[in-house]
User: Which sequence fits this backbone?
């Protein structure tokens, strides 16, 4: 018996699978029932969120991964928040802007937004479809108004995220996809791009933007 045969035999024994090709340990109905039972009480297996509210949980996890967060109370405050970020990093006022009507309709006076995206674009602003509080991740779907390279080419990626689009866990995002048209590309962004593959030295922007900044639109934080 080869090592491979021994491993497969141990798996069959653990699954209760009789030897032989094409055999199943259980019927499809039994497998479906077992899968359903695992989902009956998901909170017993899910990790606790990092904070009591979704915005705070997202900000805590994202911040731990190197993502910077700025909170504003309305979409109208987005241009000023972008300006703060650009000034804080010594960047020019020129920024690539996702061709989204909601973003384009904002007052970008004092900034120079443009639709074109250069391979060495310093900064770009886009809109996330969802945010995942569990991991501090952003979800972006490709589409006519969402060029996927916007998430990969700029050194500084500035992403607008609405508080109401935050989801607790990744499986909650999967549930949102059920019964909807599947996008051509789905990008899950968890922190800025970086690697320590080469001699253990940290390099920013190895596979995408080296800086990730989230502008979280949180109307609930508006001062009373």
Assistant:
């Amino acid at each position: 018996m080869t090592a491979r045969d021994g491993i497969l035999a141990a798996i069959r024994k653990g699954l209760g699978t009789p030897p032989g090709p094409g055999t199943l340990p259980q019927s499809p109905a039994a497998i479906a029932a077992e899968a359903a039972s695992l989902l009956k009480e998901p909170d017993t297996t899910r990790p606790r969120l990092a904070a009591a509210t979704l915005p705070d949980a997202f900000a805590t996890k994202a911040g731990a991964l190197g993502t910077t967060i700025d909170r504003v109370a309305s979409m109208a405050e987005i241009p000023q928040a972008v300006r703060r970020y650009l000034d804080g990093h010594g960047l020019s006022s020129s920024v690539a802007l996702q061709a989204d009507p909601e973003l384009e309709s904002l007052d970008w006076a004092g900034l120079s937004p443009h639709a074109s995206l250069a391979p060495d674009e310093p900064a770009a602003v886009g809109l996330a479809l969802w945010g995942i509080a569990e991991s501090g991740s952003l979800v972006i779907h490709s589409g006519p108004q969402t060029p996927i390279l916007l998430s990969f080419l700029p050194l500084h990626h500035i992403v607008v995220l609405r508080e109401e689009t935050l989801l607790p866990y990744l499986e909650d995002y999967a549930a949102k996809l059920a019964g909807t048209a599947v996008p051509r590309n789905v990008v899950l962004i968890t922190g800025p791009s970086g690697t320590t593959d080469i001699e253990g030295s940290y390099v920013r922007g190895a596979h995408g933007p080296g800086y990730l900044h989230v502008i979280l639109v949180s109307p609930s934080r508006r001062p009373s």
Notes: Residues 54-221 form a domain with the Rossmann fold fold (CATH 3.40.50.10420). DSSP finds six helices and twelve strands in the chain. The chain has two domains: 3-40, 54-221. The first helix runs from residue 3 to 15.
